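As agreed, record passed on underneath.
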Amino acid sequence: MTMALPKFRSSCESALIAAVVGLIAGACEPTDSTGGLPPLGAKIDATSVSGISSGAYMAGQFEMAHAKIVTGAAIIAGGPYGCSQSVFADTLPAPGTEFLNLSKAVNGCMLNNLAMWGVADPQMLADRTKARAERGEIDPITDVIGDRIYLFTGSEDRTVVPAIVKAAADFYAALGVPQTNINFVDTVPAGHAFVTNEDGAACDRSGEPYVVDCDYDQAGALLTHIYGKLEAPSASPQGKWVEFDQRLYTQDLSPDGMADRGVVYIPESCRAQAGCRIHVAYHGCGQNREKVGDAFIKDTGFARWADTNRIIVLFPQAQIAPFNPQACWDWWGYTGPAYLTRKAPQIVAVFRMIEALGRQTGA
């Protein structure tokens, strides 16, 4: 999972060139199929988000944009909100800004090669975030301060280095999130991947499908930190993975960078009774269904915790494209200059999905 580039080579220049090379991959068969998302009367003001790699950045972006409904966020192998934004973002027209952002993203917000130039500066990014909230582009910072924040970096991660994830932890502290609400985990010898208790490749591996076995239940750890004490997970998933048409939520958004189909996991108890919470899990680069099938969706352990704790898990999907060959979420502006705001196409689309799940049956 290499964020904005297919593979890290010997130089950042080759990484930038690779970012615009297209790849072709086949989609996996759906688990279950329907049109749009079902109305389940979910409790949308108890929504939480998580993500790995580019998904971590997107989780943070969604949290800031819709802090009123987000109660917590998990940032796995990702950095602070707004890290990739170039100082020229407000003065240069696209696509120039996009490429400047991409260069900063790779060098400063993944590899930490720009530290001597103040990238990523948690306090500066917190000040920019507060200014963005004051302009009404994202929700008020007061709605972020009470959030529960889980952050994780594998000690063997060389793709997004630990110092960048530490900067994300410091960013939340600079916003005013109490230290008691921040759980920063940096002691697991994992590579660049989502960590499980028993599924996946060797713990220190960084490669598709970016799921590794480190004897650590990351899904349970992040959900417990966000929501507090939870019931023990089920032995195996008892609910249903439902494939749905994401195009219903992106019809007026262009470009949106979203795949045609997404997946949601629905516990049986959430079909029977309204009031379930929603957790949005963002895959990383090279970890969408086109690339790795359902590994991120089914092997990460979210479903077992969802079963016993009335949590609907939404797995939105980004799309492979010539300008985005690894199906990364937009954390450098490839969908346009509003990518950090409530108007970002991918943020709008996922918010619509949450609203759909929150509708009452028959509404």
In short: DSSP finds twelve helices and eleven strands in the chain. The first strand starts at residue 47 and ends at 52. Residues 4-31 have pLDDT under 50 and may be disordered. The chain has one domain: 12-358.
